[in-house]
Amino acid sequence: MTTAPPQSDEKLRADLASLRIDRDAPATRPRRRRSRMVLAALALAAAAAVAVWTAAGRTATVTVAYATLSAPGQAGPAPVLSGSGYIVTGDRYVSIGVRVPGRIERYFVEEGQSVHKGDPLVQLDDRDYHALVARTEAGLAVAHANFDLAAADLKRGRALRTQGVISQQELDVLQNKAQVARATVAQLDAELAQARVNLEYTILRAPTDGVVLAKLKEVGEIAVPGGFAGSGDLIRLANLTDMRAQVDVNEADLNRVRMGQAAAVTPDAFPDARYAAEVVKLYPQVDRQKGTLRIEVHIREPDARLLPDMSARITFLADAPPPGEAEPPAVLVPAGALRRDQRGDSFVWVVGDGRARQVRVETAGEVGDRVRIAKGLKGGEAVVVGDAPLQDDQRVAIAGGR
Asked: What is the 3-state secondary structure (H, E, C) of 337-365?
């Protein structure tokens, strides 16, 4: 029997020891890790508590305005619905195209220029049309001469027929020549009238009062009538005396809009401007994909600031109260005081007794740069219009010491 050397036994024991699992180490590491996580959570909670305590104890400086209670009827009719739309013209856009082909020789107007009905807009090259008028006039002169000769021959022929010098057949021939000459004169008269009309068409004139929106071709280009996509159009006009605004209203709100209802239009470019308007058109078909109906209001007194395709806000107003019944007063606050929480509810910060508190409100539309408050305020409250406090019931100081 062979005995293993002592060195081999020691090596075997070392290899087995390296493969042994230390069962105490895994239990110790998780306990240490959990302890560290607990300590970190406690530290964060302590820091949050310190931050809340610091914020509650700190006095923030705020800027305030005061909710005003308007006199009955002073705030005007209450808004019932509003939406964003665009300024349009009553006649939409008038595209003026050529009725005869020709090369553009000159424009009499520029973009933005006001024109009146009948004013010249574009001059086409009219040399061919002048030549056609002259040629037709010459042909008409020849036709008149032939008719005069035929009429004289017919007169003599009738006298000769009475004397029995010529036969009835020869007289019939003379009558036919006179009738053909007369018809030729009438035909050339019509051609001359058409040639003169075509000559007039070489000058494009404004069909109505308006403003030039665009020149669609350049001088030197050839313009032809018709074509695809209005290729013969040279001028685009808009009648700015009849200005309107369009807005798409959700079909769920259509019961709040009717024909003749008062409205107000405020262009985005001029937020301080307010134009009185009236509902004049409800389009006959709802957009199925968007679930909206297009509504058009007529602006009663437009001015030069209103331009086609300008974006604007259209507000539909409630009916005026019956005669003898006063409109209730309204609470108004600046638009900058109105805020929304994470759920989308409206609220304002009200300052009282040195603290700022959140007060939930219900709005009832805008009146200029102010918001009408239906519920939540009574008037006279100091509301924050600048930076908001950090939390509810925080100590605040009013800027300026008011």
From this structure: HCEECCCCCEEEEEEECCEEEEEECEEEE
Q: Cα angle vertex 51, ends 345, 55, to 5°?
A: 60
φ and ψ at residue 86, rounded to 5 degrees: -140, 150
User: Quick one: tokens of 126?
Assistant: 């009219």
Residue with tokens 């930076």: 387
Contact call for residues 262 and 317 (beta carbons, < 8 A): yes
Q: What is the DSSP letter of 206?
A: -
C-alpha to C-alpha distance for 248 and 296, rounded to whole angstroms: 9
CA dihedral for 294, 300, 303, 305, sign (positive or negative): negative
* Predicted confidence (pLDDT) at residue 34 exceeds the cutoff of 80: no
User: How far, in Å, CA of 62 to CA of 391, rounded?
Assistant: 13
pLDDT in tens, 49-85: 545 544 455 678 888 888 887 665 555 567 788 889 9
Pairing of the two strands 394-398 and 60-62: parallel
The whole-number pLDDT of residue 53 equals 46
Read off the pLDDT of each residue in 25-44 and give the average, rounded to a whole number: 59
User: Please, what is the average pLDDT of the chain?
Assistant: 83
Strands (E), 224-376: 233-238, 243-250, 262-267, 275-282, 292-299, 311-317, 331-334, 339-340, 346-352, 355-360, 362-367, 370-375
In DSSP terms, 340 is beta-bridged to: 346
* pLDDT in the model for residue 387: 83
Rounded to whole angstroms, how far apart are CA atoms 225 and 219? 16
Q: If you write DSSP's letter for every residue of 107-137 in order, what string do you get?
A: ES--TT-EE-TT-EEEEE--HHHHHHHHHHH
| CB-based contact 212:110 (threshold 8 Å) | yes
- Choice between 397 and 52, residue whose per-residue pLDDT is larger: 397
Task: Tell me the pTM.
Answer: 0.54
